[in-house]
């Protein structure tokens, strides 16, 4: 198969969708399929495009052997509904002419439901080429935006709901990431044979890899070597209830052997950093996002890992934090301050302790329990790692996704005749790509070659 990933989020950005898409694309290529990515310039979550990409309208490069075409967008930070919507729409439009720069006509298109405008782009390209698209439903739109209070305008809600219905009804196959989303889509009339639940999963081998020699994580050395480190690694956003972590740090202020580590970025981070400074919380450290190749070093420094979500009916019923899979794959005990499927997965795997969301006292007690019982902490970590390897490893999830793609292709009508490949690219040969490259530039965490 020739598989095209159409995505707003892609490395060198750091985040769960970026990692999932790159690793799935790489796995599919290793299975013998031709894979390409049509994306935009990295800008998430700050809205700032790095120097190596800035000022370009169109760009072709290669990451880990995968051809990537990037096209223009209006870059905006991940806050403010209007500016983010304009950013999403700008790439959805620029992707249409940029698709002519792809190396071949795909057999199937893969697109995430967020941002929604890109689903319309996938439908247009699919109609143009006569090929199906597979929709990854990690969010319920517009319900998620309404639940977070981001979308309030009744007209905008109706229009968004209509676009979401269009995207779902025209997709050849739909892949929900949680049981709650799967059940809701079934209630909305999506036939069960078109729904395929696939969890995010995680790459166990990544966390077993040796730490790159000579590379360090700035700021990590400031934490006492004998401290019991409790880490949160991920987006610092509204759903993650990280004020609870600050309140927990205050409760643990008289226990100097416990240190809280928050790694990542997001719209809430500047406020959280300022708030921790105002409260004089010396037992908490904030670090910038870490390249994926350094995740083994980061997780090995943690004695336990936090997964936190707000107290919310929507999060309880539909959300599953992908962080739990990385925590378990790294062999670290999870402390989950969340309800619903996020807690259910950890409890089922016997991989951590679960406490009510937004409860600093309960969170502090869970931290004390693991600090006092290192054998329990070690056992919970080992349980989680075994569970991921047996049930939700990235490779296992990629094989399940390959089956979904095959079903979409086999059920589709005969596609239109393929186009000639644009100059500078070679055609897919026996499912693989070979093509000359002009120069090589390093990018953090990925192998990247630029045209």
Keywords for this entry:
451 residues; alpha/beta; Rossmann fold; 2 domains; nine-stranded mixed beta sheet; six-stranded parallel beta sheet; 16 helices; 15 strands; 40% helix; globular; disordered C terminus; hexosyltransferase activity; Glycosyltransferase_grp1; Glyco_trans_4-like_N; Glycosyl transferase group 1; transferase
Topology:
Layout: E1 2-6, H1 16-30, E2 34-40, E3 58-63, E4 66-71, H2 81-98, E5 108-112, H3 117-129, E6 133-137, H4 143-147, H5 154-170, E7 173-176, H6 179-187, H7 204-208, E8 228-233, H8 243-251, E9 258-263, H9 269-278, E10 284-287, H10 295-301, E11 304-308, H11 313-318, H12 323-329, E12 334-337, H13 341-349, E13 352-355, H14 360-372, H15 374-391, H16 394-411, E14 439-440, E15 448-450
Parallel strand pairs: 1-2, 1-5, 2-4, 5-6, 6-7, 8-9, 8-11, 9-10, 11-12, 12-13
Antiparallel strand pairs: 3-4, 3-15, 14-15
Helix pairs in contact: 1-16, 2-3, 3-5, 8-14, 12-15
